[in-house]
Structure formats: structure tokens, C-alpha cells
Amino acid sequence: MFIPSLFIFSLLFASSQASVVDFCVADLSLPNGPAGYSCKKPSTVTENDFAYSGLVPGNTSNIIKAAVTPAFDAQFPGVNGLGISIARIDLAVDGVIPMHTHPGASEILIVIQGTICAGFISSFDNVIYLKTLYKGDVMVFPQGLLHFQINSGTTTALAYASFGSANPGLQIVDFAFFKNNLPTELLAKTTFLDIAQIKKLKAVLGGTN
Amino acid sequence: MFIPSLFIFSLLFASSQASVVDFCVADLSLPNGPAGYSCKKPSTVTENDFAYSGLVPGNTSNIIKAAVTPAFDAQFPGVNGLGISIARIDLAVDGVIPMHTHPGASEILIVIQGTICAGFISSFDNVIYLKTLYKGDVMVFPQGLLHFQINSGTTTALAYASFGSANPGLQIVDFAFFKNNLPTELLAKTTFLDIAQIKKLKAVLGGTN
Amino acid sequence: MFIPSLFIFSLLFASSQASVVDFCVADLSLPNGPAGYSCKKPSTVTENDFAYSGLVPGNTSNIIKAAVTPAFDAQFPGVNGLGISIARIDLAVDGVIPMHTHPGASEILIVIQGTICAGFISSFDNVIYLKTLYKGDVMVFPQGLLHFQINSGTTTALAYASFGSANPGLQIVDFAFFKNNLPTELLAKTTFLDIAQIKKLKAVLGGTN
Amino acid sequence: MFIPSLFIFSLLFASSQASVVDFCVADLSLPNGPAGYSCKKPSTVTENDFAYSGLVPGNTSNIIKAAVTPAFDAQFPGVNGLGISIARIDLAVDGVIPMHTHPGASEILIVIQGTICAGFISSFDNVIYLKTLYKGDVMVFPQGLLHFQINSGTTTALAYASFGSANPGLQIVDFAFFKNNLPTELLAKTTFLDIAQIKKLKAVLGGTN
Amino acid sequence: MFIPSLFIFSLLFASSQASVVDFCVADLSLPNGPAGYSCKKPSTVTENDFAYSGLVPGNTSNIIKAAVTPAFDAQFPGVNGLGISIARIDLAVDGVIPMHTHPGASEILIVIQGTICAGFISSFDNVIYLKTLYKGDVMVFPQGLLHFQINSGTTTALAYASFGSANPGLQIVDFAFFKNNLPTELLAKTTFLDIAQIKKLKAVLGGTN
Amino acid sequence: MFIPSLFIFSLLFASSQASVVDFCVADLSLPNGPAGYSCKKPSTVTENDFAYSGLVPGNTSNIIKAAVTPAFDAQFPGVNGLGISIARIDLAVDGVIPMHTHPGASEILIVIQGTICAGFISSFDNVIYLKTLYKGDVMVFPQGLLHFQINSGTTTALAYASFGSANPGLQIVDFAFFKNNLPTELLAKTTFLDIAQIKKLKAVLGGTN
User: Fold this and answer.
1) Would you indicate the residue range of the signal peptide (chains A, B, C, D, E, F) (predicted)?
2) pLDDT digits (tens, 9 = 90+) for F177-194
């Protein structure tokens, strides 16, 4: 072809005013807003903002024999403004991710290793959707609904959860109920749980009142 | 002014192909989609599609001494596609709206009569935000978070809850846990509740397994 | 159940980088953006950010015998980023909320007291949807359309308007036309109103030119 | 390079279930929904769905000496679901596009020929933003705000208006007030216009009551 | 606690008009719309709609030594309307996912096995962001940008790609240029590629003209 | 009518806390966020923020005999947050806008002068949609898809492109491939282009490696 010269080509789209259109890597040092964090200056963005190596095996030597390791915007600034994120889930034998919701995102779980029994509860008629998932299986949990995962096999299980938000949130019912200073009487009244049950779990989880 | 004739004026915006741009009143007889119901033909829409008189006092002669009466898209077709809806909340003395979430909407509560203690739990550090609300007070509950309302006064209370969705959903934790066939063992494992506690509430609420 | 120890439980979701995912209370001292105000630091947020007691009876001793009292993001910082807000409407006998639009939000009106005649005008064929609303009735006004409310009863009327935006805007046609320096000739040309009519209303509302 | 065979290449992304991901050309024969019309079957879509030749000069032999010719989803099915559309504006000498809003879209006007005086009114303090636009100038009108265009030159003017919606709507204040059966008394009460003024314009525009 | 009876509890939220609020499983037999497919009737939805076992190892005995196996809405109806999906990527030794875009979604890649060199090109200054990813590493590719993945290790590689759309699309540049009937002259003119180069790749990929 | 006094009218909507609801003119001196730039203080906004005269004829004395002149948010701050923008396209005889995408926006092209052959490629089955457009014709290019425009007439051509984003981006395939430091071997591997072809175009466009 007939390509005579380089320098004139660069005239095609010469805007004196630079603007980053493709991404908005989070600048965690600035105040955030309803749509996410402010963007880092493009000249300071590198490939390391878009990759993350922190999804290492979690420590499952705990009561739930499980660990959730997030790569949300606060850990992985490259996803800011892009509406997606991911987390690693480790489940030792008998491990459990207790009943929880993500207030602002749907989730897809992909099982990498082991066997996981997962389920969610519909807000319509309280229907349970329950599946045993094997290596390579995926399951979707619609936004905001109560769901859980348990290791239903005999070996360690590993899964990744991808989310439709850079910051999906995680509200674990047990923590919300028993790991704060919500008064026991109020909690009993709004959950129908017995006082003794509440006090027992508050003691375990560190709740007061 | 100089306004010579009517008929030519109508030429301004004469499109042979009619299109409803302003609203999309739900046609509940057609399949719905991710964004809501299909629209009724404009020629069949009347003012009655945009008004609703069904927010009458709810029957609070029940265990929670409370009633929620919705005007969501299924009851009030005019809100379809507009991203808002409303519900009436009646609380008899000692009435409670138990711990619940709206999976897809934030809520503003406005107290019309009586005194209501309301609260929500943040997914960050499980912080409780708790307020006693009097006539005329409003409170906002961010999307997807666990919250509750109780009548904390000595008279009947009335409130309206407005939502940022035509179909906000309502997931009551007690119903989700105890009013279905979710196996007791599985529920115990994912909530840390005692088996006895679960069986007791399943018995009350009609849950099986 | 078998809950051996507390401290290991806290390992479940330990992110060194805090992030508020659930809400974004407006920091009105910082610049806002297209999606709303910047978020207050979570440690400074209290329950008072989520509740508002300013929806007191408005002063209706004015020409329209009406008052609109907003709880939008600028007054009620907790709604920032949540896409909802509310306002109180007081109508004395013969009170009128004149023809207006909310440029960026749909509205649901709930009548608390009195009788209100409300209506909106479709942009398609200029159809009027007009209803007389009694205590407990609701009506929805689709986004951006001209609408109005008048007290059509014999007593004071009270209503709340909920919106699908934290900042719905309010453009009153009379104010937009007659309460600024829009030149009379230009206004006549673009509205077909008589010069005398324009001058009369400009005099009343304080418009110039 | 080393490219041995064709047929195995086609294995890369062979989904037995076809799905159109790129566009959703409107099937105007099916009911529409809140997000737009249903999609035509991909096999019936042609290049003619994505191009439109109907933006021909409008007839300006009318009272406003102007014409608006839309290419919205109902005329130009290819824009369905894509959130954009366009219209042609012809203004004869002294032509006027009267005060109007687009309830659901912002607009950019580009002047192709002639001189246009355009303005919009902010809902905040009723500030007027007014500009005389020459060939090649653009002006943006934020969503839902009252605005107008007039031919302020001595020749015919031509402009295109592009919108951030496939169906932006068009609510002309004069039509909304005077070209329907909205009762004169009610209109007077909600606009402060004189009865005589209303009757005069209703007579011109065909309004009743 | 004091829970006298079951049947009255069910009065709390008794809406005669059923409505599915939590999800919208695709009914692939109905026309789709801009927001996705119509919803299946809730009574026909089962747990199998929310899980998918089709992400099996792809056949990499092809020219690119790679395979992409999607779980988008057309394969995995449960993600319809939820704004997320996932795909499996198999890369044999020397395997390549050629330069491509997803027109409507950002992507997170998680490496399960092997070593992958991945990169994307910014539309601003054509900057390349290039990373070698090892087992457990993630990388994000912002919406619509050109990107690629190659097996840069000595063993088979496996990864999952999660997307912020139920139907992210996949436009492979080589396919778009050389695997259709786009005239060679036109392609040369719009890509600056040599005619011989174009004809060579058209021959391989099955393009005509 | 009965309009007694001005000053009381101003009580209608008196909020002590000002808030700009209608627009968010970009303050280019502040960091931007995922939804766009921060807003200028309303008191500093003028009509000049909403109009732009910079869409002047571009210099087409270059290799592609074409020029694109943008009025995106960085050039035209009034469009910030409004989701629309526009650009001017000049095509000399034989001018070409090479294969490109806008990663985050759909586009409507309107031909003002001359004859333009335009086309886009679907990601589904690589179908080409190709049209010759004459003065006054419009064509829509769905979001993120590869497309191009060439002057197919015998005179200079002029067109405007409107976008459904204030910052649509522009990724030209030739620039992305050949005008940076993407290693030739990697590019060959991910595009199947011959090394010689790549080196030839890198030489022209200034690419290295």
C-alpha cells in the first residue's frame, strides 16, 4: 500500500486535552463516590494495576473451616468502575461459608477442586434451590438473596466466586446478628430466636448487649 | 400574536408510527423480562393504571402484629419500568416487621402515626444504625441490607415504605430459614443455630425436613 | 453446636484495606460528581445520617397556598447514591402545586390527609391522566412529564412524594418562564403567550427583561 | 505463518445455541417493554435496519415555520436498545421550536446551516443559558429541562439533534397545555395564566373544555 | 417465645398477584429484548436452571490450539438479567486466544493451571498492558478493548473468564476481517494490510471476495 | 388572577442547602471518577460551558486523508455526566476512517456532504452490514463493534458522529497493533499476520519491537 509518511498520521486524533476513557484505576487515597473511587492519573497506571496475585490459599484453621479471600476494588484497584470482581473460597473438610448475602451483586461460583453443596433461597415463596457441585460446575446466585456453600466432599474444596460489582459486599447473617452490640431483646423480637440461643452465639462471636 | 391556522401546526411532529415513550404500564398477561413486564397498548391505558387505592389498613391480628401491603408492579401496573414503588406498613402495639432484606432496592420509611424503632446492619464491621422515629420522621435503608422495624410506642403505628425499584422483593430471614423444606442439618450447619431452635421455629412457621 | 473459639472466626474476611460498600453518605463539603456527592468517611457516619426529621409542616401562607419540603441529598445526606428521596407536600385549602416536572425522576404521591386532584400530561398525543385522590391513595407520575396537584377538598391536605432519584430536580413552568431574565420577546416567540400575559406574570414573580 | 487447516478453527467458539449479542433491531409488531422493543430474528436483519434515509427536509409551511423529523426507534428500528437516536430540525425564516422538554434524554444540537438562537432553563434558580449558534456550532441541553430553538438569522436554518435515548420523547408545553381536553379552570389554576389567554390558545391549537 | 399460630403469619405478605422478583431465567423460546430474554414461569424453574456442568475441557486440536467454552445466557439461562457470565479457556502448549474484544463487558481472567501471557491495548496512546500470569493470578480486561491470551508455559493451561454481562459477545479480529465476505479491496483500504496478506488469511479462514 | 404578593412565593422551595441537579459541567482540574469528572461550582458555569465551536474542518492532508475532531467531555465539559457527545468527520477524496471501535458507546453517523461507504461487523457469525450513505442519510453502529467509513464519492465528504457516552473512546486497530511497542512476535502470534507485514506497518506508524 501507499503509506507515505508517519507524522501526518498522528494528526488524526490529536486532542490537546488528555482523557482516560478505557478504565479508572482506583486511587484509594482520595474520597470515593457512589460509583466508586477516583481514578489514578493515567501516567501512573501500570500493568500491575490490572493484575493481582493475592488470591492465595486462605487460612481455614478456624471455626468455619473456610476462608474467603477477596479481590474487590479495595484490594484490586484495576476493577474500579468496571462492575466486576472476584474472590477465592477455600473450604477445608466440613468447611462452611455460612448464610450470607451480597447486597449489591449477583455471583457465579466455579468449583475448581472438591465437592460443594450450595444453595440459595428465593424471596418468592421461600423456595430453596440446592445443588451439589463438582469440579468444573458453576452455579449462579441472584443478587441480594441468602445463600451458602458447604464442603460436602471428603477433601479440601476450592472455588472462585465472580461478582457483577467491583464491591459486592458480604453480609453474613451470623455476624450481622451476633457479632455487634445489637441488643439481645431487640434481636429476639425481630428474629423470633430464643434469648438463650442469641446469648450463646453472641458469646461465641463476640457480640455484646 | 399571529396564529393563523390550526391544521398546519399538527404537522410539526407527525410520525406515522406511534410509540409510547413516557411510561410502560404492565400487561400482566404477557411474559415479563429482566427489565419488567411488557407494556399495555397505549390506547387501553387509563388514569386508573397510574393510581391505586389498595393500600388499605392491613390485618395485624397475627403473630407479628403487623402487616405489609405492597403497591409493587404486580399490584400497581403503572409503576412498571419506572423504578419506584411503595408499600404500607401497619404495626399494632408490639408489632414487628422481622429482620429482612429487599434484594434489589433501597427503601425510605416515612412514619405517619405512632413511634417506630428501626435499624439496619451494615455489611462493614456489622455496625448497627438504630433510630427511634416519630411522626413525620424518615429513615433510609440502603439496598440489600438486613433491617427491621418495631412499634416502640404505645399506640398503633402506620408508615409507608418507598422503594427504588418497581419490584423490590422482600426476603424475611425467618421465612427463608424456617418456612420451607431446607434440611434442618444443613440449616444448622450454615447458621450455627441449635437444632432444637430450628425445629421449634420450623414447627411454628410450617417448615419441613 | 461445636464452636470452639472466637478469634479464628475473625479471619474469615479480614481485608487490610477497608472499603464501604453499603452506602455513601454525602460529604457536602467536597465537589460532587455525575453520580452524586463524595462519601463521608465511614468512621464519621452515624445513625443520624440515615434519618431526617426536617419534613415539618411547610408554610402555606403564600400565593399558591402550598409548600414543598424536600429530603433530597442536599438535605438528607444518607440518600446519596441510593437513587431515592422524598418530599413533603402541604396544601392549604385552594392550595396548588403548579405545573412542573422533575427532570430526572419518576414520582409516587401518597395522600395522608385531605383530597387532592392530581394529573399529568403524556408527551404522546398530549393525553391527560387526571385523578381525584383520597386519603391512602397513591398516584405515579412518570419521569420528566408535566404534572400538578391541587387541593380539591375543603380541608388542608398533606401528601408525601417519593422519587426514584436522590436529587430529582423540580422545574416549575411558571418560575422557568417568568421568574428570571428571559427576554419577553423571546418568551412570547417560544410560548405563543401574549406579551401582556408575560409581563403580568413577570411582574408578579419577579422576572425582568 | 503455520496455518494448516480451516475446519478445526471453527471449533473455537461453536455454540449450538445462537444468541444475538451485538444489537436488538426492533420488531415493531411485538409488544414493547420498559427497555424497548423485542428484537427481530437475526436472520431477518439486514443493513437497511441500521441505515435510514427518512431525515428529509420537513414541511415548514406551518404556524411555527419549523419541522422536527425524528429517527427514533419507531422510525429507525436499528437504534432500539442502543440508547441513542437523532432528529432533523428545519427552521424557515422566523421559525421556532417552541418551549419543550425531552422527558428521558439529553440532547446535542449541531447547526448545519443558518443561525439559531437556542436556550435552556435550569431547574436551579431558573437560570437561563442562551447562545446564538452558527454553522458548525454545537450545544447540549441536559435531560428533562425546558429548552427552545429559534431561527435568529435571515435564511433557512438546518440542524440535527442527537439524543441519549432511542426514544427521547418530546413534550411541547403549548401542546401539553392547549391541545387537549385539560379543563380551562384547572389549567388556569395550575399555570396562573389568564382564562382569556388559555381560551385563545386552546382555540388555535384545538384544545377543548 | 410466644408464637401462637401458624396460619395468621402467612397473612403478612399475601399478594394475590404472583411476581418473580429475584431472577429471570431465560425462556429461549420467546423473543428476546434489549435487556435479555423473557423469563420462564417461576413454577417451571428448577435448581438446574442456576447450575451448569457444560464447562468441560474444550477441544484444542485446532489451529490456535485453544478453545473457549461459554456459559452465557444462551447456554446457561439462569444468568439472564443478572449481568454476569463465565467461560472456560483451554490452551494447549503454544495455544493462543487471538486478538479480540467483548463489545459489551469487562472480563476477569483467573488462571487455574499453567502459565498465560495476557495483555490488552488501551485506546489512549495505544499503551500495552502485558502480564505473565501464573496459577492463581487474576487479570482484568476493561470493556471493549483489544486483548489476547497465549500459553507462555510448557504445559497445558486452563483459565476461567468471568464477565460483567450475561452476553458479553466475542469479536475476534481475524474472524471479523477474514472469515466473511468483506471485499478484499475494502478491507485493504480500511486496515492498510497488503492484498496478499488479506488473501492469504481469507484462504485459511474461509473468507470470500 | 389573584396573585397578591411576590415575596411569599419564594417560600415554596427554599432549601438552605444548594444542589445542582440538572447538569454537572466537568471541572477538568479535579480527579475524575468512574462516572466522569467532578462538577464545576454552579456559580462559575456559563452558557459557554454548554456550547462548543471547536468542530472546525479537520486537516485531511495526511495518510488517511481524513480527520476526526471530537467534542467529548475533555473538549466540551458541558456533556460530562449526560451520556452523549459528538465528533466531526472530514474525509477528503479517497479518505478513510480505518477499522476501529468505540469501547463504550454506540454511534449514529449523519452525512452532511458527499458520499460515504460505511460498515460494521457483527460479532455473531462475522456478518458485514455495509451501506453507501448519501447526504442526509444516517447509520447506526452498535456499541463496541468494528466499523469503518470511507469516502466513496468524488468530492470531499463531511459527517457528524453522535455517541451514547460523554467519552466513547476510539480504538483504531492499526494504531493498537502497529503504533506502540507490542512485540512483533507476540503480535504475529495473536493476529496471524506475517512478520513482514507487521514490520512494514510498524515502520509506517512508528511502532517498535
Assistant:
1) 1-18
2) 999 999 999 999 999 999
Reported confidence tier of residue B14, pLDDT bands at 50, 70, 90: very low
Beta partners for D161?
A: D87, D109
* E182 chain-F contacts, CB cut-off 8 A: 119, 121, 128, 130
- How far, in Å, CA of C163 to CA of C76, rounded? 13
Query: With bands split at pLDDT 50, 70 and 90, how would you rate the model's confidence at B104?
Result: confident
Which of these, C106, C64, C112, C122, lies nearest to C88 by C-alpha position?
A: C112
Burial class (CB in 10 A: 0-12, 13-18, 19+), F16: exposed
> Per-domain residue ranges for chain D?
48-168, 176-205
Binding positions of A for Mn(2+) are: 100, 102, 107, 147
Q: What architecture is the A48-164 domain classified under in CATH?
A: Sandwich (2.60)
Give residue for cell 425481630: A190
pTM confidence score: 0.93
Classify the complex by whether its ipTM is higher than 0.95, answering yes or no: no
Mean pLDDT, rounded, for C73-90: 97
Backbone phi and psi for residue A52, each to the nearest 5 degrees, phi listed first: -150, 130
Mean pLDDT in residue range C86-110: 97
Out of 3.40.50.300, 2.60.120.10, 2.60.120.260, 3.40.718.10, which CATH number does the structure's domain F55-72+82-169 have? 2.60.120.10
- Chains touching E (at least 3 CB pairs under 8 A) are A, B, D, F
Dist. CA F173–CA F64, nearest whole Å: 14
**Model confidence pLDDT, tens digit, residues F60-92:** 999 899 999 999 999 999 999 999 999 999 999
Sheet bearing D138-141, strands edge to edge: D66-71, D85-91, D157-163, D107-113, D138-141, F51-52
Question: Taking CB atoms and an 8 Å cutoff, what residues of chain B touch D204?
Answer: 3, 6, 9
pLDDT exceeds cutoff 60 at F132: yes
Q: Which residues contact D4 (CB under 8 A, 6 or more apart)?
A: E63
E137 Cβ contact partners less than 8 Å away, ≥ 6 residues apart:
A51, A52, A53, A55, E110, E111, E131
What is the DSSP secondary structure assignment for residue A43, as one 8-state letter?
G
The residue of F27, F28, F30, F63 whose CB has the most chain A CBs within 10 angstroms, and thus the best one to mutate to test that interface, is F63
What Cα–Cα distance (Å) separates residue E36 from each residue in A140, C9, D19, E21, E74?
16, 41, 10, 15, 10
Q: Which fold has domain B48-169?
A: Jelly Rolls (2.60.120)
Count of CB contacts below 8 A, A vs C?
A: 80
Q: Measure the CA–CA gap between E10 and B179, rounded to whole angstroms.
A: 10
